[in-house]
Design goal:
This protein is an alpha/beta fold and 402 residues long. The protein folds into two domains: 199 residues, Rossmann fold (3-Layer(aba) Sandwich), CATH 3.40.50.410; 131 residues, no CATH class. Helices cover 50% and strands 11% of the residues. Strands 3-2-1-4-5-6 form a six-stranded mixed β-sheet, with helices on both faces. Helix 5 links the parallel strand 4 and strand 5. The protein starts with a helix and ends in a 14-residue tail after the last helix. 42% of the residues are buried.
């Protein structure tokens, strides 16, 4: 019994000593780990930022001018939002609305970083219907807040822009009225701004109250949107470079993945055919930014996947490779991928430089004409700049991207 007790004491003493040694050595171990991390340049990646923006757009006939302005300017708005120091990811969504008795009450297009596909949907909208006073603003706001897949991350700037020229119907008994919806928006951390098109006296009070309850800003613009629209000597070259940049993409994946890729490529093709040269120039400027990378590449793009190290080329099934390199030896295929990556970076750099020249050209012209403080571009930029600061996004430019 004494021997057993003695052994137990010895074991307990050993455990105490081991624990004490561990505690004493812990700072030294942590210091050694820190030195090792420093020597291997190991850093903790910064938390990425994101902008999620939904445009709630009245698509009745009186809105034709502003809808056309939105079609022309959506890319410069995206570039403006992307111009923060933190290079935020940009996701956009759209809620189109009219009124009961029209072809539709609302149509919801969820948030996506594939702005091309969202824009293709916007191109399909034609301003028709309406003309009878109030519209289904309550339903549009409800759908924007509750039927869109907003994230819950604390580092995301969530914002909606309600754009229209008519007040909400407050006489529909089965509507969720906007004060209730805006309270839900506040709980989700979604800011709601309002942009009134035209000067309808009955619209202004409701739009101002919606902005106040939505913790956002109220703006008023003319029916045309007061958007800055300046053609430049750089537009044609930028639109051509955009096509060359897209031609550096190589896609891989199974049949289902290829179907998604085809949908994106079809949207790209349509944009090339139907967008104005100025809009294509704006789009190229956005796609050359870090924020525009996802829109440019889409899913399962081989050049980026391989050169970033996310995917090992030799682990991809031959039948899942792009047809152009399927029969190549791995070394030969890798050479093609490397060349495409280098070509892509060179094109991006050229687009950035030309885009900056284009911005200077436009700013000089705008200043010569008295400035653009009342433009749709500047009003959206000021709202974004002020509101996004709450999630750590910093915008240093004095003006929007045009």
């Amino acid at each position: 019994m004494k021997t057993r007790t003695f052994n137990a004491k010895i074991i307990a003493l050993a455990l105490i000593l081991a624990t004490a040694s561990g505690i004493a050595l812990f700072p030294m171990v942590k210091q050694a780990q820190a030195i090792q991390n420093t020597n291997t340049n190991t850093t903790v990646p910064a938390q990425s930022h994101r902008v999620e923006v939904v445009f709630i757009l009245d698509t009745t006939s009186s809105m034709s001018g502003l809808i056309q302005a939105a079609k022309e300017k959506i890319w410069s708005i995206a570039s403006t939002m992307a111009s923060a120091q933190q290079n935020p990811d940009i996701r956009m969504g759209l809620v189109a609305f009219r009124d009961r008795g029209d072809a539709y009450v609302t149509r919801v297009y969820d948030l996506s970083d594939d702005l091309d596909s969202m824009y293709a949907s916007l191109m399909d909208f034609r301003a028709v219907g309406g003309g009878d006073g109030p519209e289904s603003v309550n339903q549009a706001l409800y759908d924007a807040i509750h039927k869109v897949s907003w994230s819950q991350d604390s580092n995301v700037y969530r914002v909606a822009f309600l754009v229209g020229d008519a007040p909400p119907h407050m006489d529909y008994a089965d509507d969720v009225k906007y004060p209730v919806t805006l309270a839900a928006a506040a709980r989700k951390g979604i800011v709601v701004n309002t942009i009134q098109s035209g000067q309808h006296q009955y619209t202004r009070p409701a739009w101002q109250q919606i902005a106040a309850l939505g913790q956002g800003n109220y703006f008023q613009v003319e029916d045309s949107g007061n958007a800055v629209a300046v053609a430049t000597p750089f537009d044609d070259k930028l639109s051509k470079l955009a096509t060359e940049l897209e031609d550096t993409r190589l896609y891989f994946g199974d049949e289902e993945t290829r179907a998604k890729q085809k949908a994106k490529l079809d949207a790209n093709s349509r944009l090339r055919k139907e967008l104005s040269t100025e809009a294509l120039a704006r789009r190229s400027a956005y796609n050359a930014t870090e924020s525009g990378k996802k829109n440019l590449l889409g899913e399962s793009e081989l050049v980026d996947a391989v050169t970033s190290g996310r995917v090992d080329l030799e682990e991809i099934e031959r039948e899942d490779l792009p047809a152009s390199i399927q029969m190549m030896a791995p070394a030969e295929a890798m050479e093609v991928i490397t060349e495409q990556a280098q070509r892509r970076e060179a094109l991006k750099q050229e687009i950035r430089e030309l885009s900056e020249s284009r911005n200077r050209f436009i700013r000089k012209k705008v200043e010569a004409e008295g400035g653009a403080d009342d433009s749709l571009d500047e009003k959206i930029y000021r709202a974004v700049k002020d509101q996004a600061a709450s999630v750590g996004l910093s915008y240093d430019s004095d003006s929007a991207k045009y």
